[in-house]
């Protein structure tokens, strides 16, 4: 890669975004019930209109925009074409784009997923991509390698907020964690991501991070070396500001707090959406303060 094409690392960009715009990661989740609530058709046109209204309202306010890929993919190739539009338009607003695709596979298949999302000329533009590590963190190597090359970020699912995940992610391994004591599966995932960051960090902030739910009761221990954090579960799902501080620890300055329902339920009026976005940003601005 020539000097003219080097992109600032995602780790640096995410910290800059949090410092200037706050911690809000606004989800674009055009599921059928919300389309109906907004008076939009359950089709590609409805998805496009929904997404554009969200970006008109909040693209210049939120630190990041997170399209949920599944809700576009459900409409086939036309839906994915809308997703391409949404990712580019979100970028044009100055927000970071986190593609919530949760890809996870092995070998050449994972490498193809990586090219689709993380290559410099990827058809689906994003600044960062969510990945599932439950075929082994090592299986994600093609994504780590390409993201390091192109300055993109990764969010690896570590401790998610859905109740079905608790038994698996809290299972104890025979090996110990880096901080001592028995390691949970979630902690082992987190520590492997940390090692990836240490291997490529250079002079930049770490770009490989974790998804840790705000409502998780036994979250993995994280430091700045574990990279940026994506924190779902705040607000409508029961997570509080105290929960966000608890799961993020010293990494609060690199945390994106995902909010969807609290804002999207205020549509379809753009001004209402914008006011709701501003209210959440204001609420999240208090994260650095103790309760």
TrEMBL record:
EC number(s) on file: 4.1.1.23
Catalytic residue list: 102
Domain Orotidine 5'-phosphate decarboxylase: 23-276
Key words of the record: Decarboxylase, Lyase, Pyrimidine biosynthesis
One GO biological process term: 'de novo' UMP biosynthetic process
The keyword Ribonucleoprotein is annotated on this UniProt entry: no
Pathway: Pyrimidine metabolism; UMP biosynthesis via de novo pathway; UMP from orotate: step 2/2
Reactions catalysed: orotidine 5'-phosphate + H(+) = UMP + CO2
Classification via Gene3D superfamilies: Aldolase class I
Molecular function terms from GO: orotidine-5'-phosphate decarboxylase activity
Family named by the database record: Belongs to the OMP decarboxylase family. Type 2 subfamily.
Protein name: Orotidine 5'-phosphate decarboxylase
Organism of provenance: Dietzia timorensis
């Amino acid at each position: 890669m020539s000097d003219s094409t080097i992109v600032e690392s995602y780790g640096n960009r995410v910290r800059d975004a949090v410092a200037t715009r706050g911690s809000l990661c606004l989800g674009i989740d055009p599921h059928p019930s919300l389309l109906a609530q907004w008076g939009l058709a359950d089709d590609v046109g409805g998805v496009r209109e929904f997404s554009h209204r969200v970006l008109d309202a909040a693209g210049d306010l939120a630190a990041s925009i997170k399209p949920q890929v599944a809700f576009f993919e459900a409409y086939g190739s036309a839906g994915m074409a809308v997703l391409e539009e949404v990712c580019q338009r979100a970028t044009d607003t100055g927000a970071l784009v986190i593609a919530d695709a949760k890809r996870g596979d092995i070998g050449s298949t994972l490498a193809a997923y990586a090219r689709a999302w993380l290559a410099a000329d990827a058809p689906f533009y994003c600044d960062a991509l969510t990945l599932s590590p439950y075929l082994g963190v090592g299986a994600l190597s093609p994504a780590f390698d390409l993201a390091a090359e192109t300055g993109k970020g990764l969010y690896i699912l570590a401790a998610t907020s859905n109740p079905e995940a608790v038994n698996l992610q809290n299972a104890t391994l025979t090996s110990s964690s880096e901080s001592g004591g028995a390691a949970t599966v979630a902690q082992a995932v987190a520590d492997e991501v940390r090692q990836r960051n240490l291997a490529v960090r250079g002079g930049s902030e770490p770009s490989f991070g974790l998804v840790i739910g705000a409502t998780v009761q036994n979250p993995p221990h994280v430091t700045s070396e574990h990279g940026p954090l994506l924190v779902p579960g705040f607000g409508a799902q029961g997570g509080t500001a105290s929960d966000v501080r608890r799961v993020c620890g010293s990494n609060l300055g690199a945390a994106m707090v995902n909010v969807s329902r609290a804002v999207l339920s205020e549509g379809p009026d753009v001004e209402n959406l914008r006011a709701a976005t501003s209210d959440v940003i204001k609420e999240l601005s208090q994260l650095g303060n103790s309760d």
